[in-house]
Design brief:
By secondary structure, the protein is an alpha+beta fold. The chain is built from three helices and five strands.
Length: 172
C-alpha cells in the first residue's frame, strides 16, 4: 500500500485545545477522532512531547486532511516537527507510517491508510468498530530518542493532556 494520503496520528500540541491545533489543523482537516498508538512511549520535551518506539501506548488523535489540503498540511507539519527528510541528521522528528487504533465506540469509516486488517480478538468487536489505521506519526529522531531513553521523563500513561491538572470549575 502507498503511504500517500495517509491520515496523521497527533499526540501533543496538535491535539484539540492545545496551542498548535488551531494554528495548523483548523480548516485543514475534515475528521479528527481519538486514537492510540501502540508500541510507543511518550516523553516530556521543552513544552511539547516526543513519542519514541517502546513498550507502551500513546494517546492522541487520528487526523484526516480536508479535500485539497493534504499537501499543504503535510508541508506545515513537516516544518513544525523539523522533519527535513527520511534519516536527515538534523531531523528533530522522523515522519514514519505506523498503525494507530481509533478509540472504541468511534464508528469506523474506511479511508486512506485503513489497513482493513483487524487485531487478534477482532471478532469481539461489534459491526463498524475500528481496527488499525495506517497513519503518519512523528517520532523522536535518532539522537533525541537515544537521549530520552537514557534520561528522559516519561509522560504518565502516554497521555499528553493528563500532565496538567484539570481546569477549575467556574461558577456563575
Amino acid at each position: 500500500m502507498s503511504d500517500t494520503g495517509l491520515p496523521f496520528f497527533v499526540y501533543g500540541t496538535l491535539l484539540p485545545g492545545e496551542p498548535n491545533h488551531d494554528r495548523f489543523l483548523r480548516v485543514r482537516t475534515c475528521r479528527e477522532r481519538p486514537a492510540v498508538l501502540p508500541g510507543a512511549l511518550l516523553y516530556e520535551g521543552p513544552g511539547y512531547p516526543y513519542a519514541v518506539e517502546g513498550h507502551g501506548t500513546v494517546h492522541g488523535a487520528l487526523v484526516t486532511a480536508a479535500p485539497g489540503a493534504y499537501a499543504e498540511l503535510l508541508g506545515l507539519l513537516d516544518d513544525l516537527e523539523e522533519f527535513l527528510g527520511p534519516g536527515h541528521p538534523r531531523n528533530l522528528y522522523e515522519r514514519v507510517a505506523r498503525e494507530a487504533v481509533p478509540a472504541p465506540g468511534v464508528p469506523h469509516e474506511p479511508g486512506p491508510g485503513d489497513s482493513g486488517a483487524r487485531e487478534p480478538g477482532a471478532g469481539q468487536r461489534g459491526p463498524g468498530e475500528p481496527g488499525p489505521v495506517r497513519a503518519w506519526v512523528y517520532l523522536a529522531a535518532g539522537a533525541v530518542a537515544r537521549s530520552l531513553r537514557t534520561g528522559g521523563t516519561l509522560v504518565p500513561g502516554g497521555d499528553w493532556l493528563s500532565r496538567r491538572p484539570p481546569s477549575a470549575r467556574r461558577t456563575p
